[in-house]
């Protein structure tokens, strides 16, 4: 193939990057001012820096490291480094990528040149100190500005390699690309490049590297290149740096290959060396550095009071939707699928009943499920139903009910937006079913809302600008999770904006004041970057939010307006007892600013089935209506009550009894009763092979008003809220890694690590006869051990001991003995930062500490 193949995407992975790795135990510096390892760098830092590292990378605390050497080793493991890189913003990640292709160690000016290029960039110069400080805080970079070192694992992940092409698009160095080249070929290359021949391959590689890194001489060499050769370089300069060639390449490619500007990787593949590419790029490692985060675009601005009122309206509608959903399942909801979750047809049926789209219905279902208000009953014929916690929730004030839903939503890892999609095995994900947990969801929700909080109160942000900012905040994670269906992180962010509006977190696209309190953000000017989780207890934040939301919600009313067309108008939200009673007596016909209820024979019969008499219903309406009870409504109640219970249905399989044998004859003669398989047992009794429930429904469909009765002959009263599951625990979120430790945990962990490090590194006086190798336990006889700890107890000094616990685990400790008796030594353990007692027979040996050591 010829030059034309060089503009195609490379099929051969890039070569391995240069620079020697480091990590715990690596490095070349000397002296206290220049730490030689990451552990030494951590040891030289203060407790605040150590706490910041543990807060930024909580996985390092599982379990708490014994000392700083173990912490540094754990911080260099692949899984931990990958997680840390995923939490870098785009510019900090670009700085780490630049260090991965820089010499190791790299001075700060070299790193600045790789990011800003030869021409410089004031924005990059201003942003780089923050990026380097972030990398140091995360223990991804250590060393002073003269010797910046990227930890070995991060270098392996980010530098060019055969398995992982460099994100910078750079190829291997000249030294790496010529590693297997013959000395004769090297001499031919430097001669063609106009360099004097050398006596060995090492000096030849050094001469060629010096040429490519010298701006003046490199420019002079390229001035002699054919225009077609420069065009080939232009195709490779920003990556991928590989191209395919034929055994007999065209003249421009041959000119580049002869001078080392294209070095062979295989018989058919060449690569542009890193030093040459950096010259062509003007010294920059990235084509488009992004030192500044994208700005959020404000689409609309409203008065804060307008936003709060709109959010409060949505919050009230959210409460009504959840109540309507659970009320419709009061007698038991849909069945649980064998594989878990809700059937698609049941989701469609519920969405139709709520008059909502299926995706919105799935959101409210999952929200109620996550809050513990809804669960499966665990019976043989397993169904979903409200839990006892739902009744407790109904007794709370509306603002507190809303905060419980909002807190559940913020922390939930179950992602309702995935309902109806397919998993990796092609199975459809169902509401309430497995496979909906996404550990990143809480972080994405908090980040989206925190971004909205940075805008002025009342300002709404453009959705695309929010997504662009999230891509800048977490570029590596977004790239790793990208799929054919789109980036999951971005989809969760888009769902967050929609769900926040439905839930009343936002109003008209802007963050409401109660939501700011719930998120523990300043109410006037948000600065989420300055806050850490745990600064405010969740219960305190929820209480603040409920206090702010309460006055914004509409006040409940205790009356309705009855109308002659058998409807009742509720001019606002009804108080709980009135709303519950009216929902049994009438059906909701329309919602909005005022709810319209309609009275029907079926709804009146439902109230009678619940144990209310006609006089009770008349009294109830008279007491709660601001208008007189219309005559048609009074007639309707009396007519249904007169016929209610005239027929009695019980279990035989089932039977119907009635004092009026003519009515029973009418039922038998009706063709619609054929499916009920009725036969007369007595003048006042009919028997049926159908169950009582089916018989009741069949007779009601024929226009009768039968009542169910017990085995004793009493009328059974059906309560609307009779069925509840047993006590159920709400599904626990599945976090994306360990939780961020609180201040108490951080303080204790820092103390323990520092104490363990002192025990592992403290100088001690070794017995002359029994020298102890570095890192091994001290070994002394039982008599020597007893004498040494007794002397330390008398003088109040500390000693270094080796200890083996009951499980056989060995450790080194620094203790200050205070009492030695009964075969035990009691003293203050500097490693554990507490007083402990140790059996003398488990102490392997003891040594005094060097003078001046703790």
Explained architecture:
With 854 residues, the protein is of the alpha+beta class. The chain folds into six domains: 121 residues, no CATH class; 107 residues, no CATH class; 186 residues, no CATH class; 83 residues, no CATH class; 61 residues; 88 residues, SH3 type barrels (Roll), CATH 2.30.30. The chain is 43% helix and 12% strand. The strands form eight sheets. It has a six-stranded antiparallel β-sheet. Strands 18-19-17-16-20 form a five-stranded mixed β-sheet, covered by helices on one side. It has a four-stranded antiparallel β-sheet with strand order 12-13-15-14. A hairpin with a 4-residue loop joins strand 4 and strand 5. Helix 2 crosses helix 33, helix 5 crosses helix 7 and helix 28 packs across helix 30. The longest helix is centred in the middle third of the chain and has 24 residues. The protein is elongated, with a radius of gyration of 38 Å. It starts with 37 loop residues before the first helix and ends in a 5-residue tail after the last strand. The N terminus is likely disordered.
Topology summary:
Elements lengths: L37 H7 L2 H10 L11 H8 L2 H9 L3 H12 L6 H9 L5 H16 L3 E2 L6 E2 L1 H7 L15 H4 L5 H10 L8 H13 L1 H9 L3 H10 L5 E3 L6 H8 L4 E2 L4 E3 L2 H7 L17 E4 L2 H24 L16 H11 L3 H13 L3 E3 L7 E3 L1 H7 L3 H14 L29 H13 L5 E3 L1 H11 L1 H6 L7 H16 L2 E2 L2 E2 L1 H6 L19 H12 L11 E3 L3 E4 L5 H10 L1 E4 L4 E4 L2 H9 L4 H11 L6 H13 L4 E3 L3 E4 L3 H9 L8 E5 L2 E4 L3 H10 L5 E2 L34 H19 L2 E2 L16 H14 L3 E6 L5 E12 L2 E6 L4 E6 L3 E7 L5
Parallel strand pairs: 16-20
Antiparallel strand pairs: 1-2, 3-5, 4-5, 6-9, 7-8, 10-11, 12-13, 13-15, 14-15, 16-17, 17-19, 18-19, 21-26, 22-23, 22-26, 23-24, 24-25
């Amino acid at each position: 193939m010829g030059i034309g193949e060089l503009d195609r995407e490379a099929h051969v992975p890039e070569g391995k990057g240069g620079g020697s790795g480091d990590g715990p135990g690596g490095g070349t510096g000397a002296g206290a001012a220049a730490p030689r390892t990451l552990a030494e760098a951590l040891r030289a830092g203060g407790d605040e820096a150590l706490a910041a590292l543990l807060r930024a990378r909580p996985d390092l605390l599982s379990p708490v490291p014994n000392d700083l050497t173990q912490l540094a080793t754990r911080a260099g493991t692949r899984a931990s480094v990958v997680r840390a890189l995923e939490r870098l913003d785009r510019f900090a990640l670009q700085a780490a990528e630049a260090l991965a292709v820089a010499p190791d160690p790299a001075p700060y000016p070299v790193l600045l040149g790789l990011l800003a290029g030869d021409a410089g960039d004031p924005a990059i110069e201003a942003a780089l100190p923050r990026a380097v400080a972030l990398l140091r805080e995360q223990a991804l970079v250590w060393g002073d500005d003269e010797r910046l070192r990227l930890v070995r694992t991060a270098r392996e992940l980010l530098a060019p390699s055969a398995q992982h092409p460099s994100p910078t698009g750079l190829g291997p160095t000249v030294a790496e690309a010529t590693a297997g080249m013959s000395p004769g070929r090297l001499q031919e290359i430097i001669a063609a490049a106009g360099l004097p021949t050398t006596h060995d391959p090492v000096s030849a590689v050094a001469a060629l590297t010096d040429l490519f890194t010298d701006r003046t001489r490199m420019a002079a060499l390229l001035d002699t290149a054919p225009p077609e050769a420069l065009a080939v370089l232009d195709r490779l300069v920003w990556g991928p740096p590989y191209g395919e060639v034929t055994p007999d390449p065209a003249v421009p490619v041959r000119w580049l290959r002869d001078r080392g500007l294209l070095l062979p990787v295989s018989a058919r593949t060449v690569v542009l060396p890193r030093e040459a590419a950096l010259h062509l790029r003007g010294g920059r490692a990235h084509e488009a550095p992004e030192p500044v985060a994208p700005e959020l675009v404000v689409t609309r601005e409203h008065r804060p009071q307008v936003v709060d009122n709109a959010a409060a309206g949505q919050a009230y509608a959210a409460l009504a939707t959840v109540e309507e959903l659970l009320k419709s399942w009061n007698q038991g909801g849909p069945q649980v699928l064998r594989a878990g979750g809700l059937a698609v047809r049941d989701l469609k049926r519920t969405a139709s009943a709520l008059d909502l789209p299926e995706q919105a219905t799935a959101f409210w279902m999952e929200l109620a499920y996550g809050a513990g208000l809804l669960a499966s009953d665990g019976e043989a014929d397993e169904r979903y139903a409200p839990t006892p916690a739902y009744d407790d929730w109904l007794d709370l004030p509306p603002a507190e009910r809303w905060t419980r839903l909002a807190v559940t939503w913020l922390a939930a890892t179950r992602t309702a937006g995935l309902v109806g999609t397919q998993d990796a095995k092609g199975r459809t994900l169902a509401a309430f079913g497995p496979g909906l947990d996404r550990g990143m969801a809480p972080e994405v929700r908090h980040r989206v809302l925190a971004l909205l909080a940075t805008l002025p109160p009342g300002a709404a942000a453009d959705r695309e600008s929010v997504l662009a900012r999230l891509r800048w905040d977490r570029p590596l994670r977004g790239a790793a999770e990208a799929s054919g269906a789109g980036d999951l992180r971005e989809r969760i962010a888009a769902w967050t904006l929609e769900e926040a509006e439905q839930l009343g977190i936002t109003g008209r696209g802007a963050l409401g004041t109660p939501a700011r309190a719930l998120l523990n953000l300043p109410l006037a000017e948000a600065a989420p970057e300055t806050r850490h989780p745990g600064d405010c207890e969740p219960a305190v934040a929820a209480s603040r939010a409920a206090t702010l939301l309460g006055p914004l919600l509409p006040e409940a009313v205790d009356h309705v307006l009855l109308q002659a067309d058998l409807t009742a108008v509720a001019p606002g939200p009804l108080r709980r007892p009135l709303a519950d009673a009216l929902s049994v007596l009438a059906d909701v016909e329309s919602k909005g600013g005022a709810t319209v209820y309609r009275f029907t024979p079926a709804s009146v019969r439902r109230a009678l089935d619940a144990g209310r008499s006609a006089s009770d219903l008349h009294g109830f309406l008279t007491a709660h209506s601001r208008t007189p009870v219309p005559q048609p409504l009074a007639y309707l109640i009396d007519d249904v009550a007169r016929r209610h219970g005239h027929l009695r249905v019980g279990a035989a399989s089932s039977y119907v009894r009635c004092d009026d044998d003519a009515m029973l004859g009418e039922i038998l003669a009706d063709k619609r009763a054929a499916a009920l398989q009725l036969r007369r047992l007595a003048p006042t009794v009919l028997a049926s092979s159908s169950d009582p429930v089916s018989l009741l429904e069949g007779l009601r469909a024929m226009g009768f008003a039968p009542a169910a009765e017990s085995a004793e002959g009493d009328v059974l009263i059906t309560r609307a809220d009779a069925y509840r599951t047993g006590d159920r625990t709400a599904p626990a979120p599945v976090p994306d890694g360990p939780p961020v430790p609180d201040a108490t945990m951080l303080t204790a962990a820092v103390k323990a690590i520092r104490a363990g490090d002192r025990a592992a590194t403290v100088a001690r006086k070794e017995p002359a006869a029994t020298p102890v190798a570095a890192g091994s336990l001290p070994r002394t006889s039982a008599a020597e051990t007893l004498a040494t700890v007794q002397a330390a107890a008398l003088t109040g000094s500390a000693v270094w001991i080796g200890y083996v616990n009951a499980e056989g685990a060995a450790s080194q400790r620094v203790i200050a003995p205070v009492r030695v008796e009964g075969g035990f030594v009691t003293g203050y353990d500097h490693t554990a930062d507490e007083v402990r007692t140790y059996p003398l027979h488990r102490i392997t040996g003891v040594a005094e500490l060097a003078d001046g050591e703790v």
